[in-house]
Amino acid sequence: MKNLSDQEIEKQLADLEGWEYENFALETTFEFKNFKEAFSVMTRIAFECEALNHHPDWSNVYNTLHIRLSTHDTNGVTEKDFKLAHRIEEIIVSE
Ligand SMILES: C[C@H](O)[C@H](O)[C@H]1CNC2=NC(N)=NC(=O)C2=N1
């Protein structure tokens, strides 16, 4: 798996509303109704991460969820990060 170029990252980000390339990672912040909603979505995302064997750097404060996706093995952004970002979007939309 190889790191994507800045140009390729910007191109692929066009299909991911609300996500940005910041600090060498794909980043977004979601806001939910309350902690229960946030944690429920995190649980669903966690199972997906296990299935993909790709994991986020994330933090949760009450109803907000900040997600940062990068590939630790290559120290950059790869197709794996975009795949997980799209899966996370599907999970959020289906809630
Ligand atoms: C051994 C295992 O495949 C690796 O440690 C996986 C697990 N999850 C991972 N998650 C992320 N974000 N980056 C990785 O490089 C990574 N590597």
Summarize the structure.
The protein has three helices and four strands; from the N terminus they run αββαββα.
In sequence order, what are the helices and strands, one letter per element? HEEHEEH
- Please report the number of helical segments: 3
Major sheet summary line = 4 strands, antiparallel
**CATH architecture annotation:** 2-Layer Sandwich
Percent helix, as a range, is 40-55%
Number of strands: 4
What's the alpha carbon Rg, rounded to whole Å? 13 Å
Q: What shape does the CA trace take?
A: globular
Q: Name the strands of the widest sheet in spatial order.
A: 1-2-4-3
Please give the alpha-carbon distance between the first and last residues: 31 Å
Number of domains: 1
Bound molecules: the ligand C[C@H](O)[C@H](O)[C@H]1CNC2=NC(N)=NC(=O)C2=N1
Based on secondary structure, the structural category is alpha+beta
Structure write-up:
It is built from three helices and four strands; from the N terminus they run αββαββα. A hairpin with a 2-residue loop joins strand 3 and strand 4 (64-69). The protein has helices at residues 6-13, 35-52, 79-94; strands spanning 20-22, 25-31, 57-61, 64-69. Helix 2 runs antiparallel to helix 3 (79-94). It has a single domain, classed as Gyrase A, domain 2 (2-Layer Sandwich), CATH 3.30.1360. With 95 residues, the chain is of the alpha+beta class. It is globular, with a radius of gyration of 13 Å. Strands 1-2-4-3 form a four-stranded antiparallel β-sheet. The model has no long low-confidence stretch (mean pLDDT 97). It binds ligand H2B. Residues 53-55, 71-73 line the site of ligand H2B. Keywords: Lyase. GO terms for molecular function: 4-alpha-hydroxytetrahydrobiopterin dehydratase activity. It catalyses: (4aS,6R)-4a-hydroxy-L-erythro-5,6,7,8-tetrahydrobiopterin = (6R)-L-erythro-6,7-dihydrobiopterin + H2O.
